[in-house]
Specification:
The complex is a heterodimer of chains A (about 200) and B (about 350).
Chain A (H helix, E strand, L loop, with lengths): L3 E5 L9 H10 L9 E5 L7 E5 L8 H5 L5 E3 L5 E3 L9 H5 L35 H7 L11 H4 L6 E5 H15 L8 H5 L6
Antiparallel strand pairs in A: 1-6, 2-3, 4-5
Chain B lengths: L4 H23 L6 H4 L3 H10 L8 E2 L11 E3 L2 H35 L12 E3 L3 H30 L1 H4 L1 H33 L7 H8 L17 H25 L1 H4 L2 H29 L14 E3 H7 L1 H10 L2 E2 L9
Antiparallel strand pairs in B: 1-2, 3-4, 3-5
Classes of the chains: A alpha+beta (about 200), B mainly alpha (about 350).
The complex binds protoporphyrin IX containing FE and iron/sulfur cluster (2 copies).
């Protein structure tokens, strides 16, 4: 089985936000929630880099460890998913996540954040693959159709890579060696306790 | 990745060199070396871990989304909070609560129930008015449900989920969460009332010093004089006021995340909330013990409000003297035979 990951090659990302838009559209993500976002570091300075970030589908995921109702599960492809049926909206996964991935539909509403929402790696949720109910709660299930996450698939500069860890790491490594520079596999050290050795 | 002082110094030197070199690159674009000029994740993370001044605690940048906190790219502290919450928090909770239970069992077996030495007199004296009893039970009732629903968040998935199954446990936890969120308000109201009503009787004074020196009558059989509240009860009062106050403050931040100002603050308030909660629960278990099975006649104070005169004389001699003067003894109110 594959070990699915995201990798954003910041030396290619042009901050077009198409991944953000594609994600919102593909999954009908509600107002106020962005499963993916693009952050620009050192904005306006030489060496500025933009990084597209979503849930990293961590190894030994912190969100899953702290959830008081055990609503997370890791798929055979190592994608971290959760059940909105079980979620009580306590906010703990958000406290634990190093990437700010978990979000809530009613943040400002006293005591009832609502069901947590985050990137599903386009892999839906615990409901029947491809069902209308699954779409309503979690969005499209592209993985079940044999497709990769849409954000990475439509990235115009191919900065955002999705796929098996070894495969995308090899692609990134080749790029770095060929062009002679690379700012790193953003988030990997934090999410997987290892990064790509070049 | 091991971290040595030398690599720290090197990182810092590189960072400083970069910082100094930046304007030069800006003026001479032809000499740009993308590797050297680009922000490097490795460097930034190392600087975060080393707590390099000016680096803050978060890798963050500019974002086009109106929610500024979305500009936080990486905040590794969540992992430390996870380690606390799934580790130390469990130990602190288990030791505080189970430790207190063990202590009380040992105390009960060695000291036994503290009896009214002179036996019941049959005459009673009003210890707590209806209003005082109302605010006590308002706060206590809310506290018990807050404690149980809170502990469910900490321990439920280990203790209850295997019994009920995941679905029933999640449904129950949802209700527990609503109970926790809504009963927090009457609890806070009760705290305010208790503070206003009882604070004058809970200011420490010289009788407390003597009471503590004599072991409060808990060890030994002597009953040191006490006013309306003895030093032990004052400790309970202030634990509730201070502990409850901290729980209210931290809890309100958890309820209204936007007031806390970011995820790091929420982690902090959660830690405060969790630790104070289990400590206060332990203190309340002791309080419940001594107010019920631990001491004959004590529970009357918070049920009917009328305590036996002999009980009052033994435990709150100075208070009784003061009341006697005002003639608040009810000789026939609870005419039961002495035990
Ligand atoms: C006074 C007002 C209080 C407020 C506003 C409050 C609010 C909260 C909130 C929002 C949480 C997060 C979990 C959830 O959403 O259910 C929580 C957790 C918790 N609360 Fe409270 N609470 C209050 C009082 C108390 C009291 C009196 C106790 C017990 C004595 C208590 C014990 C706990 C515990 C044990 C947790 C779980 C801590 C953890 O494992 O992280 N709370 N509280
Ligand atoms: S990025 Fe956050 S939400 Fe995603 S698996 Fe890691 S901890 Fe969980
Ligand atoms: S918000 Fe939901 S998914 Fe996140 S920790 Fe709480 S119950 Fe679990």
């Amino acid at each position: 089985m594959a070990r699915m990951k995201f990798l954003c090659d910041a030396d290619r990302c042009i901050e077009c936000n198409a991944c953000v838009t594609a994600c919102k559209n593909e999954h009908d993500v509600p107002w106020g929630i962005n499963r993916r976002r693009v952050v620009t570091l050192n904005d306006g300075k030489p060496g500025e880099r933009s990084i597209s970030m979503a849930c990293m589908h961590c190894t030994d995921a912190p969100c899953a460890a702290v959830c008081p109702v055990n609503c997370f599960y890791t798929t055979a492809d190592a994608v971290v998913l959760h059940s909105k049926e079980l979620c009580i909206g306590c906010g703990y996964c958000f406290y634990a996540c190093p990437f700010g991935a978990p979000q809530y539909p009613r943040v400002s509403n006293f005591g009832t954040r609502g069901k947590m929402d985050k990137c599903t790696y386009c892999a839906g949720g615990p409901l029947a693959d491809g069902s209308a109910a699954e779409y309503a709660s979690y969005g499209a299930n592209r993985l079940a159709e044999g497709k990769l996450p849409l954000c990475a698939e439509m990235c115009s500069t191919k900065a955002l890579l999705a796929g098996d860890s070894d495969m995308i790491a090899t692609i990134y490594k080749e790029r770095v060696l060929k062009r002679g520079y690379g700012s790193g596999a953003w988030g990997w050290q934090t999410a997987y306790k290892e990064t790509i050795a070049i | 990745m091991r971290f040595s002082l030398r690599s720290l110094v090197a990182t810092f030197a590189v960072a400083m060199a970069l910082f100094a070199a930046v304007p030069a690159f800006a003026q001479q674009p032809s000499s740009v070396n993308p590797t050297a000029s680009a922000v490097q994740e490795r460097q930034l993370l190392d600087a975060l871990r080393a707590g390099t001044p000016g680096q803050g605690t978060t890798l963050s940048g500019r974002i086009t989304i109106p929610d500024a906190s979305a500009g936080n790219l990486i905040q590794p502290q969540g992992q430390a909070w996870r380690v606390f919450h799934q580790g130390a928090m469990h130990w602190i909770g288990a030791i505080a609560i189970l430790g207190m239970l063990v202590l009380l069992v040992v105390f009960y077996m060695t000291r036994g129930r503290i009896m009214i030495e002179a036996g019941r007199s049959g005459a009673t004296i009003l210890r707590f008015s209806t209003f005082e009893r109302f605010i006590h039970w308002l706060t206590a009732g809310c506290f018990i449900i807050l404690a149980l629903s809170g502990l469910n968040v900490t321990f439920g998935k280990f203790v209850l989920a295997p019994l009920f199954g995941e679905d029933a446990f999640a449904a129950m936890s949802q209700w527990a969460k609503y109970a926790h969120n809504f009963l927090a308000w009457p609890f806070m109201l009760g705290l305010v009332f208790m503070f206003v009503t009882w604070v004058v009787h809970n200011l420490p004074d010289s009788t407390d010093v003597n009471w503590i020196k004599k072991g409060g009558g808990l060890v030994g059989s002597e009953h040191p004089p006490a006013k309306k509240f003895n030093a032990g009860q004052k400790v309970i009062f202030w634990s509730v006021i201070i502990g409850g106050g901290l729980l209210s403050l931290s809890g309100v931040y958890l309820l209204f995340p936007e007031w806390a100002g970011g995820v790091l603050a929420l982690q902090f308030w959660n830690i405060i909330h969790g630790i104070v909660a289990v400590l206060l629960i332990a203190a309340m278990i002791a309080h419940i013990y001594i107010g019920s099975i631990g001491m004959e006649g004590a529970a009357d104070a918070m049920t009917s409000g009328e305590v036996d005169l002999n009980w009052a004389k033994e435990h709150h001699s100075l208070w009784v003297e003061e009341k006697m003067g005002k003639g608040s003894i009810h000789p026939h109110a609870a005419a039961q035979p002495a035990e």
